[in-house]
Amino acid sequence: MNANVPAVSVMALTIDCADPAALAEFWGNALGRPVSPGSTAEMAQLEAAGPASGPRMFFQRVPEAKTVKNRLHLDLATEHYDQEIERLTGLGAKAVDEVKVPGVRWTTFADPEGNEFDLLTFKSE
Fold first, then answer.
1. 30-66: pLDDT as tens digits
2. Residue 98 belongs to what domain range?
3. What is the chain's Cα-based Rg?
C-alpha cells in the first residue's frame, strides 16, 4: 500500500437520538431511502442505495438530550428549492434560518430531534 493513499473511507454517519425508529423514518423519507429491516428501539439504519446516495446512516438511542449546536451536519443540494422546503417541513423539519447570497441560497433546518441540516440551491431565485 502506498503511504500517501488513504486506506479509509466514510462507511456511515451515526446520529445520537432519543427515538431511533422515528428519526430514521424522517431521514428515510427526506432522502428517499428505506429504513433497514431489523430496526429496534435502540438502533435503526438507512442503507446506502449507491455511491450517489451517500454513506449509511445509523441512529442510536442515547439517554441524554441534544443540548448544543451540531458539530457535524448534512448539506442537502436541490434544484427544486421551494418544493423541497415544503416537503421537508411537511415531514417534520423546522426552518431555523435562511441565507441568500449571489449564486447560492440555503435554509438551515432542525430535524424532529433538533439536529441541524442545510438545504442548498446554487441558482439565484
1. 999 989 998 888 999 998 776 667 788 999 999 998 8
2. 73-125
3. 16
